[in-house]
Amino acid sequence: MKKNIIFYLLLVSNIIFGQDSPYKGFLPPRLSTIQRDAITSPPPGLMIYNTTINCMENWNASRWVSKCSGIVSLNCLDATHNGTLTSGTSASGVSSVISYTGGNGGSHNGQIVTSTGVTGLTATLLAGNFANGNGTLTYTITGTPSSAGTASFAINIGGQTCILTRTVTEPAGAITTLDCAGATNNGTLTSGTIASGVSSVISYTGGNGGSHSGQVVTSTGVTGLTATLLAGNFANGNGTLTYTITGTPSGAGNATFAINIGGQICNITIIVASGQPPAVTSPDINCNGWSFSNFGTFNGSVSGHTISATVTNVAGTTVGPSASIRKCNSTETYFMSNPYSFNSPNNEVRTMRVKFNKNVSNVRLNVSSFSTSAYLTVTLKRNGVIINPTVTSSACATAYSPSSRRIVSMVSVGFRPDSYNFGGQWFDEIEITGSKTVLNESYQASLVEFCVGAVEL
Backbone phi, then psi, for 35, in 5-degree steps? Predict the structure, then answer.
């Protein structure tokens, strides 16, 4: 049977060729992908039916474009992320690989999508072809993120959509200098007392605005303390860091913390005070602390802690003479080397004052007198206020009177030294006045030695 095919020109201005049939279609050249790719220099607009992927394709002057490309699913949630994104830093080597299923082997034009949330980024998928079945798409991310947070990209390819998200972090925090030596310490630390309201504020320069993870550091020297800096961000430029001090210091002295933050290191040192004065000790004629003998200012050390004393002759006190004194209830002698002398044969009042630069306690006085009528008035002060100490004395000494603050020397067993220990409280000043009860006694002298046993830090 003979078939007639009729071609005609439609009298329509924008169509130059057409075919009209109620039951027939247009059949373009049918080629496999291999046959298609063998075409030499295809002209733009060339159309074929690709039998490999069962889709119409046309050449767009640079590649074959499928008319029926597509995929069944697109998995942004489990995308593989390469590289990192940092606020304010140009992205480099950053990409996200998204898997898909049901690819039909068709071509796609790629995609360029800008970020939302954290702006400043662009995700680019180059044009290409889907696999037949499952495959992946690689979006390259470029640009400079405007801030830290989450950057979102609306992916739309092959008839499927999903949201790709990338985390943008703060830049690694860094500073140029850290001034531990000039730190401001707030609150006080006392041995054996839980720290409360104690902190150290350290200034820095050259902050880059980046984040830091904070720091927790334990003390050395005096142990039992912890300095904690919470995570946060450095300022852009100069700023401060506040370390909160907690815990219970194990003793008195210096608590040191090794600070290491933002690429800088230094040590902060906080003094831990002694707290309550040490227990009052029984007097020992031999000095196990710090002693001095003259007028002026003297520096010394008690248990490794420095101290100074300014000794003033207020009225008529002298130094010396040295004397060998018989010990209490013993035939042995004790040598008093250049003691302070309160000699007043004509009823003169003799006074001396010792002012310490720190609070002291357990200060021992060795006292000897050559007169039964001689007595000493010992006044202790802290910040100019008279305090009442706890006083212990040697076996041969007379009791100290808190009301009169007097020491009365008894010499019935010879010119022995009487030892008194003043403790129970901290004090920073001792004033001693020598006098006597018998007027116009031909000779009278009281000798005094000092020994400092404890210092408050």
Answer: -65, -40
d(CA 214, CA 195): 20
Fill in the DSSP letter of residue 347: S
CA dist., res. 353 & res. 358, Å (int): 15
Return the ∠ at Cα 274 (arms to 270 and 275), rounded to 5°. 110
What ranges do the domains of the chain cover? 30-66, 73-169, 177-273, 296-455
Q: Residues 203-258: pLDDT tens digits?
A: 999 998 888 999 999 999 989 999 999 999 999 999 999 999 999 998 778 899 99
C-alpha torsion angle, residues 139, 144, 148, 154 (rounded to 10): -30
Using a cut of 0.85, tell me whether the model's pTM lies above it.
Answer: no
Residue range 73-169 in CATH 2.60.40.350: yes
Q: State the Cα–Cα distance between residues 339 and 291, nearest whole angstrom.
A: 11
Looking at the domain 177-273, which fold is it? Answer: Immunoglobulin-like (2.60.40)
Q: Give the 3-state secondary structure of residue 182.
A: strand
Residues 296-455, CATH architecture: Sandwich (2.60)
d(CA 195, CA 245): 7
Radius of gyration of the CA atoms of the chain, in A:
48
What is the tens place of the pLDDT at every residue in 158-205?
888 999 999 998 888 899 999 999 999 999 998 878 999 999 999 999
Q: How far apart are CA 25 and CA 342, in angstroms?
A: 136
Q: Do domains 73-169 and 177-273 have the same CATH topology?
A: yes
CB 20 within 8 A of CB 8: yes
Lookup result for tokens 């940092």: 86
